[in-house]
Amino acid sequence: MFNLEIIGSGVATLKNKYTNNDFKKFVDTSDEWIYSRTGIKTRYFTEDENTSDIGYIAALKAIEDANIDKNEIDLIIVATMTPDNFTPSCACLIQAKLGLNNKKIMAFDVNAACSGFVYALEIASNMLENYKCALVIGSEVLSKIIDFTDRNTCVLFGDGAGAIVVKKSLFDKKMLFYSNCIGDLQGKLIAENINKNGNFTYLKMDGKEVFKFAVNAMEKSINYILEKLNIKLDDIDLIIPHQANIRIIEYVCKKLNVSIDKFYMNIAEFGNTSAASIPIALNNAIKEEKIKENSKIILVGFGGGFTYGSCYIEF
Ligand code: ACO
User: Fold this and answer.
1) Which tens digits make up the pLDDT trace of 49-58?
2) 152 C-alpha to ligand 1 centroid (Å)
3) Is-contact 275 261, C-beta < 8 A?
4) Catalytic: 242?
5) What is the dihedral of CA 107, 111, 113, 117, to 10 degrees?
6) Which in 26, 125, 251, 295 has the greatest CB count within 10 A?
């Protein structure tokens, strides 16, 4: 259990909005098929910006929202599975873009696919024993690894970035984490950057297998927090799940016997933005005042790897 506080959050606003009908230009699909199976209506794609560019925008907004001097930041962690480069990391690029090169800072990326933000937040929380102020960012330009001729995958994803600033709390604000992983050698959800032949391969997914994994991972991650804290779902004000598919969330609601209103969702607008989905949803929920002073929430992520995990936060 950590005594920590999220003091600011921000999201990069992308202009390039694609509706489901826009995909008819690329593949044989329909708004009805996509919306009824996923809950997605639109998603955003960057034009020329890369992952560190939109991560930087989200970071700037989070710093502004936190109302701190950017020089207070001494730790930058970026969760992404679509970094600009193998090296330098997006975290190092964002440090430079923020003009913090002369500061003593630790900066690095974490790749845990769609669970990346929850993983990164747990890492930051542990490190805040020795660091003062962490910038934790989820940023993805998934359009770099999407095959726009594959209707099974291209309609599901979007680009995006969200960021938060986290510090040790002067008040009694608790955070608790659960992280787990089931290594998959069968490529059920895989995007090879460059394979041994030097060829690039796009993201591929066995949708039904991912669905089965996701519902179990979500249930287990939420239940871990409830059991560890000896609380019930009624004690939680809001659950912010990774925004992959509304049917995954509906299925989990049935398993947990809880109303879907307990879950925050913005998948209809953003699609699945992988590691960016939870910080974008968190920011939107705060701005919409669905999270207020003293709210108790759970973040829950699941993704390629397979990775999964959750985070309990007191506001
Ligand atoms: N438009 C029209 N038809 C399509 C499309 C599309 N965009 N995509 C697939 N189809 C077709 C397939 O070709 C197939 O046709 P066929 O039967 O003639 O071969 C048919 O639709 C498959 O339909 P369903 O079996 O009904 O598809 P399903 O209900 O499994 O839905 C989906 C697919 C949405 C991917 C589902 O498996 C799912 O939700 N999986 C969870 C995975 C997920 O959400 N992943 C997100 C990324 S992973 C992550 O974030 C962790």
Assistant:
1) 999 999 999 9
2) 5
3) no
4) yes
5) -30
6) 125
